[in-house]
Specification:
Two copies of one chain form a homodimer.
Chain A lengths: L6 H17 L5 H8 L5 H13 L3 E2 L8 E2 L1 H11 L7 H13 L4 H16 L2 E5 L2 E2 L4 E10 L2 E8 L4 E7 L6 H15 L4 H5 L7 H19 L5 E4 L1 H6 L1 H5 L1 H11 L1 H14 L5 E5 L11 E10 L3 E10 L4 H23 L11
Antiparallel strand pairs in A: 1-2, 3-8, 3-11, 4-11, 5-6, 6-7, 9-10, 10-11
Helix pairs in contact in A: 1-3, 1-4, 2-3, 6-14
Chain B binds a DNA duplex (30 and 30 nucleotides) through helix 2 and helix 3.
DNA sequence: GTTTAGCACTCACAAGCTTAGAGTGCTAAA
DNA sequence: TTTAGCACTCTAAGCTTGTGAGTGCTAAAC
């Protein structure tokens, strides 16, 4: 439907998008020529700009103002115009270092990833904890706390831990609880939820009770679209003068409160892209009304077949894709590697129990 | 230093604060008289207002504008003028119900408390998970995950759980891990950090390694001023037109990112007030520069001698204290009761293992 | 002595007007 | 096909003015 862009048009579009991302002001033909020492005149630029507007890549806030990219303009920029660079080596090292220095704690990794992502991109970062692709029972522990209160710690393959306090109908000794836990551990270890459902009823009443609770909990975990969501960098976005103008960004931030919505959004990313793949959502691209005027850069990370999570950045449409995209990509790779090492590499030679 | 306020002055101050909290506009003498059918004239009100301004309870944004409460004005209002009401019974029931309906999961309780608090007060809510007053070892569990990777789950008295992934220097079987865990459990159960430090060195190398890690982890927990911080209601405050004006609120929100700062702030509340006690911080009351133009209503909850946490609300100085204070108080009591039941009541008759 | 009516005065705010300047679209010439 | 030139458009900032809300003060009333 669209005539292909000439090289010069591409070049101008590129410059307009870059310039606008940097300044936030509508871009004028003269300014472009002067700033980039173009070998043709403002008038020519204007003609090309008019053509680009015609094609829907640029628009004018009002007659006699400079040009601003449309959603389409940004998309074209991201997919065809931007030169994809890697994060500077030094920065890569610094970031990697921080992860290997922190203790091998998933929670801490997630927090760190969110913080770094937010800081590097100056936008709101989002990271979901990795979620197993299929829930498998690993271990259960029952700890009597007080009277009839029992703490149940349920571990699933992949390392996710769920804890829950139960109130039994009558007090039970720790020995008895340990016994029950041991029997269940032997019977269920490594089984998927389906396999567990196929198990026979327990003869022991307490064991059966716990069994039921385990099933409930596993089901709950399996149904969740993603793990815990971490985010950071709210202030980045609150500080932007942009924020005041754009009513919209505020709407988008509401997503952060609605954890369920957020999880769904991120879960979709997981579905739609492969590990290492990157997804750029510009504006209300995909039916998320909340995202008008905003963009997200998302990536999936994890260990294929084992567990996956998503991470990314939410910011104004006018964000620096050139900085954001490599950062998100690098971070996804980094986390993928970390989890790979943790769960599949048999004996990495570097680390130690400190 | 200050002459005591006459009854009429108190009355006028009360009305000005109420009115301003409601409208956000400077309060005029005429408007007061008309709206509350005062039995004296605007001129009289003006005289009294002038006196109150003199004393530092009110101020004028500019000559010939109505009056606005100063920080002192709010403080006087909160401590002497406000009639302390309880939350409506019905609301109390509704809220209580929600808690008893959710499963007895600390994480879920905290989340719920934050959500309800934010919703009821239309401000940003803050809740810290309860933190033990003294750290006592309860239980350790070692679960082999993959190769040399071991998941350590550490439970301390009071129910807090800390999990951590360790990389051992060589692979170890699950049986061996269970053995070690069992020995440590027997030796350390119920001991405080000090008592554990007085323990002799383990002869078994692996056991000693784990022992060291446990000590490290306990120390980390003991040093933390408070448990995990939950919050909710960001959008409440983003939506207020107030927010745009007040640069300050934005600053205050930065606290939410700086979890450490936030924890300290909340920890101070824990120190300074007894359980059930309430603390109202108005403006830069207490040296927290970030809180200019903001107020916090905080309360401590918990089980005396066992564990405590803090919870409360952060909002613009011009918040509805009459609504906020009872809500925070009620919520603190509710959580206190919940944890009391969970950890001390031997056999509450109501609940069941479902 | 206290209260209040009356009035002059102050100030913010909105509306209307003007000007400056940035930037365009178009046309005609190169 | 490119570009110089020019008329035209639109915004933003500054200025003036009018309006109304609200005060402080004074002198009279209670």
């Amino acid at each position: 439907m669209m005539p292909p862009l000439s090289e010069r048009q591409k070049r101008i579009l590129l410059l307009v998008v870059r310039e606008y991302i940097e300044s936030g002001q509508p871009v004028a033909s003269q300014a472009l020529v002067r700033r980039y020492h173009l070998e043709f005149s403002p008038a020519t630029v204007r003609n090309e700009m008019a053509a680009l507007s015609e094609m829907g890549y640029l628009r004018q806030p009002h007659t006699s103002a400079g040009r601003v990219p449309t959603e389409e303009g940004y998309r074209f920029f991201v997919t065809h115009l931007m030169n994809q660079v890697e994060l500077p080596e030094e920065l890569q090292h610094t970031i990697t270092h921080q992860f290997y220095q922190s203790k091998a704690d998933v929670d801490e990794w997630m927090q760190l990833a969110a913080t770094i992502l937010a800081h590097q991109t100056r936008a709101v970062s989002l990271v979901t904890a990795p979620h197993p692709e299929q829930v498998r029972f690993k271990h259960v522990e029952l700890i009597s706390t007080q009277g009839r209160q029992v703490l149940m710690v349920l571990v699933i393959e992949g390392g996710e831990v769920s804890q829950q306090v139960l109130a039994l109908s009558e007090p039970v000794t720790q020995e008895r609880l340990s016994q029950v836990a041991q029997r269940l551990n032997q019977a269920l270890r490594g089984l998927t939820l389906e396999a567990i459902l196929a198990q026979p009823r327990r003869s022991d009443a307490l064991e059966q009770d716990i069994f039921t609770l385990i099933v409930q909990d596993l089901r709950r975990i399996a149904e969740q679209p993603a793990g815990e969501v971490y985010f950071d960098g709210l202030t980045n976005v609150l500080e932007a003068p942009e924020f005041i103008e754009s009513e919209e960004l505020r709407h988008a931030l509401r997503l952060l409160e609605e954890r369920t919505l957020l999880k769904n959004l991120l879960a979709r990313t997981v579905e739609q892209s492969h590990i290492g793949g990157l997804q750029v959502i510009i504006g209300s691209d995909a039916g998320w009304e909340e995202l008008r005027q905003c963009s997200m850069v998302l990536a999936r990370y994890g260990v294929p077949g084992m567990l996956t999570g998503a991470l990314g950045v939410l910011g104004p449409m006018r964000m620096s894709y050139a900085r954001t995209i490599p950062t998100v990509r690098f971070m996804a790779d980094l986390l993928s590697n970390l989890f790979n090492e943790q769960f599949t590499a048999p004996t990495p030679p570097s680390q130690d129990a400190r």
